[in-house]
Amino acid sequence: MRFNRSIALALALAASSPLAIAAEGHGHAHHGGSTIGQPGTAAEASRTVEVTLNDMYFEPESIAVKAGETVRFVVKNEGALLHEFNIGTAAMHEKHQSRMQLMMDHGMLTPTGINHEMANMDHSSMPGMEGLGHQEPNSVLVAPGETSEMVWTFSGDAQLEFACNVPGHYAAGMAGEIRLD
Amino acid sequence: MLLSCIKKAAPVLASLWSLGALAGTYNLVIDEQPLEIDGKAKNAMTLNGGVPGPTLRFREGEDVTINVTNNLDVDSSIHWHGLLLPYTQDGVPGISFPGIKPGETFTYRFPIVQAGTYWYHSHSGFQEQEGVYGSIVIEPAKREPYRYDREYVVMLSDWSAETGDQIFSNLKGQSDYYNYSQQTLGGFFKDASQDGFAATLRDRLDWGSMRMMPTDIADVSGYSFLVNGKSTDDNWTGLFQPGERVRLRFINASAMTYFDVRIPGLKMTVIQADGNNVQPVGVDEFRIAVAETYDVIVQPKEDRAFSILAESIDRSGFARGTLAPREGMKLALPELRERPLLTMSDMSMASMGGMDHGSMDHSAMNHAAMAPSQSQTVDHAAMGHSQPQPQAMDHAAMGHTQPQPQAMDHAAMGHTQPQPQAMDHAAMGHTQPQPQAMDHAAMGHTQPQPQAMDHAAMGHAPAQPQAMDHAAMGHSSMAAMTDTGGDYAPGSGLTPTAANGGKFLVYGDLKAMTPYADYRAPDREIELRLTGNMERYFWSINGIKFSDAEPVRLTYGERVRIKFVNDTMMMHPMHLHGMWMQLDKGNGRFNPLKHVVNVAPNTTLTVDVPVDAIGEWAFHCHLMYHMASGMFRKIVVEPPAAQAAQM
């Protein structure tokens, strides 16, 4: 089943970098004193939002949420290229982009997908590569044609964007606003 | 905001939109009038009274009607550069149509079947050099895939006080007429005292046999460089609000000038090349060949001015514009960088006219004494050193700081069998993603063993003592980042580097955003050697100039690989009309579609052409005076024989 396979990919990536969240300081998401929220479960979700990833834009382009609300995102990649759906502040996205660039440089990611062999290698002993992987709970990487999902509980504390941090994509405009209703 | 920009930038005349069907009518008038730019006054050729002409804004799916009136006293024409259209509308006198006589109006009619940034220019005489050029922006029928708040056309050009005819006759009479940086007799004795008389004499004789000089970077100097028709003093300005994304549509409308483009303080994300969307790639600087286009997005966040700097590659000047939050802001121009010198690497064996290099005594060459920038440029592979390197050669002193592309085949790397003792990732210093920061010397490549190094066959196969199996590794993206991706001959004096030490765009970075559906092996290959003689100012293809050449015949539906081999010491921006060239830098179905490809000296570049447009098309070097002297072919695309027989 396609859906499960992309989840499995994310987990496989995660296995190589158990320290990612702590090292990065987001995930549980304290950023500048405010929190971006936390992962939720599908059972808690009050609604489902379908998000389409295209080359080089999101549909919809902005999403409205309420403070405390838990939303299930079903994220489908209809493009020809690898894309990400990541919830965070602009500063978090910027930081994540440089990590994604490193992963691309090291062949863990390609423009169209995830290189399992490279991604499963233990890069953690290399300086600057500690915790390199893609396990952040506020993000899913979705290969072309695949669908993945993410459940998120919004705190309402931070100004958030959803973004694709695959190298070049955010700069080309692949980001959208999360509005607090 | 975007709308108001478009309105301001588009003085499109008499746009007539019928209800329902998308159709527009546009009028262009070619005329002559006195114009002074950058203190250089002459009778310029204008379009609707200006240089450049108006930006034509079309929409994909529109049927356009364009009336072009020629008020000159000579024939004229307009060619729609990069547009796919019936060949009779392509605007090349003698191939697509007879041209436009003085006082007459020619009406072009064609459907717009593509989107992106293009341009138009006269294809008659040297009228393009005189001012007959303008930009085309085509809005896509579907959603624009990128998001930006404003956009501007940034049209670069070279402006001379002389007419094109004067320049051409100067070049024909004395090819080094514009080479203000010639090496002098004094320089000869200086080199001779450093390198020894015999070595210097031999070096000068080599250049002489090429009819070239190391300073032959550009044929013509004395230009002023313009941004949208404005000199650096006039400072074309594009406004922004801090934080906005701004799309810049760079078009090189120069007759002869390549530029290295940067905006100090801003990363540029390249999103389109030659009108076709590419996977966005962030760069600090890029080189734009004559007639190419590149679209970039920048996001200036500070409330200050940023200079758009397009530095001519012979470093004779800048085209400069400014991005600013308010009108009237400008920064001081930086110093011009050092003028590059061509090296032996830029000299192909074929072009040396049968020189007996086998008799050259390489062991006498004092590589260590060569300037660092030149010593690392010596391309042993091209020089055909089949013999092991002389022990006396001090490779360490040669300054091999830049890995030779053929030396490190990262593209084939796969990390399947990491060799811990050889591959010291910990020492790779991967903290900075900049490729330039990668210290290969620290990668565990101890010192190369000169006597064991076969430069001619540098594939790092099992013979290498380091035990590092590069052949089995797979850092595909690293290859493009750590070298020029084969865009230039290894060690070429023309190899660009970013002014801030950051990322310089290479052709391998250009990957189509949408994979090509019908990607397959070519049906056949045609080799085209780019040839010429600088001193006689004679440029040709396969040694034959246009006036003496048969057309190249292609069959509709076939897929033809064109292999360009540059036997000259100059770069040639090769332009195919009417059909795309899929630039092959190993990106397969993501090979980008281009209308101009730059072929550097002593390199081979391949493109695949899906032959999908019947008719007669022009195919030429877009350096105006190379085209004029014969580096040009007519391409005839015929229906398949079976089909033709039935007709």
Automatic annotation (TrEMBL), chain A:
It comes from the Bacteria. InterPro entries: BlueCu_1, Cu-binding_ET, Cupredoxin. GO terms for molecular function: copper ion binding; electron transfer activity. Residues 48-180 form the Blue (type 1) copper domain. Residues 1-22 form the signal peptide. This is Blue (type 1) copper domain-containing protein. SUPFAM superfamilies: Cupredoxins. The keyword Cell membrane does not apply. Pfam families: Copper-bind. Keywords: Copper, Metal-binding, Signal. It comes from Marinobacterium nitratireducens. Transmembrane segments: none annotated.
From TrEMBL, chain B:
One of its GO terms (molecular function) is copper ion binding. CDD domains: CuRO_1_CopA (cd13848), CuRO_2_CopA (cd13874), CuRO_3_CopA (cd13896). InterPro entries: Cu-oxidase-like_N, Cu-oxidase_2nd, Cu-oxidase_C, Cu-oxidase_fam, Cu-R_CopA, Cu_oxidase_CS, Cu_oxidase_Cu_BS, Cupredoxin. Residues 1-23 form the signal peptide. Pfam families: Cu-oxidase, Cu-oxidase_2, Cu-oxidase_3. GO terms for cellular component: periplasmic space. Coiled coil: none annotated. It comes from the Bacteria. Residues 33-142, 223-311, 520-639 form the Plastocyanin-like domain. Keywords: Copper, Metal-binding, Oxidoreductase, Signal. This is Copper resistance protein A. It comes from Marinobacterium nitratireducens.
